[in-house]
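Structure in, sequence out. Go:
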């Protein structure tokens, strides 16, 4: 079904967002602080507005993609109460505190609903079925415009707190970095000279991708245990994980691969075992990753 949407800001993100909406058949109005920059989008059917206010007035859904951090509030203040009754989706990078402040400002201007959003992995992934559009804020606004937003990727509502999308973005970037760095260390380990070595990255990755499916299953298993006080070992206690970490450090040194990463992974394991948790499962390690000391780890509401 064709919807009406306005995109404010035509940098890399805004341009990709507008193109995806157009590709999905939605009537798309665009605006940029530098007039006349919507040439290619206009050729695809976009309507270029002469002002931010005109862009907002054209559609019930306004998606803001301006930079740097804080520019979204400048646009919002320029539009003023013209945003009243419309849904605002902000895809501008910023901190959790910034997201909450923008949400408060949007409410003062009378928006029908506000969502703070993050596109994972970024502009290059917009429109791809594997792209995630993480949104936090008004559930009703998300529900009302979910089908339209699906042109950008798979929409996922995180919760009512506008700060959640920003926190998730940082946490997921950390997960990606840790995973890819671990993969690179593994590639170096199997590719080094020595018995069983000289394996290419492509050969190793074919097996590693299969193993990551198992790792994902372990995450599902461990997640409800974190903070519960009950972390069963299920055959592989932390003392065994520590022994494997020692082997990984030693193997890295033998093959001439920098051992810094496995040493980093070993450190919280050693603290957990020293604190008497050697017979427990991997979920117990959460509190030792979260703190230098032994403290109870439990998830809670996002704070600024």
């Amino acid at each position: 079904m064709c919807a009406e949407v306005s995109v404010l800001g035509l940098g890399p993100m805004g341009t990709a967002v507008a193109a995806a909406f157009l590709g999905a058949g939605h009537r798309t109005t665009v605006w940029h602080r530098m007039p006349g920059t919507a040439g290619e989008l206009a050729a695809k059917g976009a309507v270029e507005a002469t002002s931010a206010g005109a862009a907002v007035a054209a559609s019930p859904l306004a998606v803001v993609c301006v930079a740097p951090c804080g520019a979204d509030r400048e646009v919002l203040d320029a539009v003023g109460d013209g945003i009243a009754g419309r849904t605002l989706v902000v895809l501008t990078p910023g901190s959790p505190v910034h997201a909450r402040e923008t949400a408060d400002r949007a409410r003062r201007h009378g928006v029908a609903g506000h969502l703070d959003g993050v596109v994972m992995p970024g502009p290059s992934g917009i429109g791809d079925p594997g792209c995630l559009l993480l949104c936090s804020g008004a559930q009703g606004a998300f529900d009302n415009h979910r089908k339209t937003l699906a042109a950008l990727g798979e929409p996922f509502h995180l919760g009512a707190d506008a700060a959640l999308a920003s926190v998730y973005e940082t946490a997921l970037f950390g997960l990606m970095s840790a995973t890819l760095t671990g993969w690179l260390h593994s590639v170096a380990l199997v590719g080094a000279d020595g018995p069983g070595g000289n394996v290419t990255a492509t050969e190793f990755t074919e097996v590693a991708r299969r193993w990551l499916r198992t790792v994902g299953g372990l995450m599902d298993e461990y997640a409800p245990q974190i903070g519960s006080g009950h972390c069963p070992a299920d055959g592989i206690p932390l003392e065994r994980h520590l022994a494997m970490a020692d082997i990984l450090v030693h193997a890295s040194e033998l093959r001439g691969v920098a051992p810094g990463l496995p040493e980093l992974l070993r450190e919280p394991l050693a603290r957990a075992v020293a604190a008497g948790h050697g017979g427990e499962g991997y979920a117990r390690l959460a509190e030792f990753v979260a703190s230098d000391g032994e403290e109870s780890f439990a998830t809670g509401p996002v704070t600024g």
